[in-house]
Amino acid sequence: MEALPRETIVDVLEKRLREDILAGRHPAGSYLPPERELADGFGVTRTSLKHAFGRLAHAGLLETRHGVGTRVRDFLRLGGADLLPVLVRHSPDWIGEIFEVRRGIGELIVERAAIRATAAQVAELRLLLAAVGDAAGGEPVQLADVEVHRALARATGNRVYVLLTNTLFNAYLPVRGALVGPFEDPWAAHDRLAPVVEAVAAGDQEAARTAAGDYLSATERIMLKGLARSGGRGEGAL
To answer: Distance from first CA to last CA of the chain, Å, rounded?
Structure first.
């Protein structure tokens, strides 16, 4: 068995600074203390601190200006959806807001797929749906279910919907392990999703939207219960 990697000093620094920023201890628009002061306070080298700053800048939480200093970005005003996994990791409360967007976008995607899906895409959807029922339960079913939703997004013919679908799934990453409830029984998961696929196959726009709403609401209720039981923990990767 391969040993799990240990946290490095940079990992720990990044996590500590991220928590301080998201908890408001370093407010948006404020400058962090000088590097030397921070490094001495943490008992680390300035090189390690710079690496941590680089990661947080890449995540959209910091910006460094040469000769001026490192400032906390106003991520709610300037940030993008790529920040969602970071925010969920800090506070699972974000999941409720993500689910609200999931419902709205999910219904719209399925409605569009019902209008635009080709015969080949319908055949692919049915194969992917069958794979949900054939999966082993839990994580394999969850992953098979994801592929159905990716295919629905592709069937809209709009690549932005595909990227939005990816973004929403990526947002779940920090708590994915707590969201497996709807997928423990493969055939229950299959039967819950089947009306969505069949409405798209029939080209029935109204039925597709209704089926998507029913599916999204049902799975959301189960996932939120699982998240509550886990206390917001559930590390995993889609």
So the answer is: 22
Q: Write down the pTM of the prediction.
A: 0.80
Q: Tell me: the pLDDT tens digits for 23-50?
A: 889 999 999 999 899 999 999 999 999 9
Whole-number pLDDT of residue 160 = 95
Amino acid identity for residue 126 in this structure: R
Token pair of 13 as six digits: 């620094």
| Helix ranges, 59-138 (H) | 75-78, 84-90, 94-116, 119-134
- Are the CB atoms for 189 and 183 separated by under 8 Å? yes
Asked whether the beta carbons of 29 and 71 are under 8 A apart, the reply is yes
List the beta bridge partners of residue 31.
71
How many Cβ atoms from other residues are within 10 Å of residue 19's Cβ?
Answer: 12
pLDDT score at 4: 43
Residue 75, pLDDT score: 86
Half-sphere exposure of 104 (CA within 13 A, CB side): 6
Q: Which two tokens mark 105?
A: 């976008």
> Which portions of the chain are predicted below pLDDT 70?
1-6, 232-238
Query: Per residue, what are the HEC states of 142-200?
Result: HHHHHHHHHHHHHHCCCHHHHHHHHHHHHHCHHHHHHHCHHHCCHHHHHHHHHHHHHHH
Q: Provide φ and ψ at 69, rounded to 5°.
A: 140, -170
Backbone angles phi, psi at 64, to 5 degrees: -110, 130
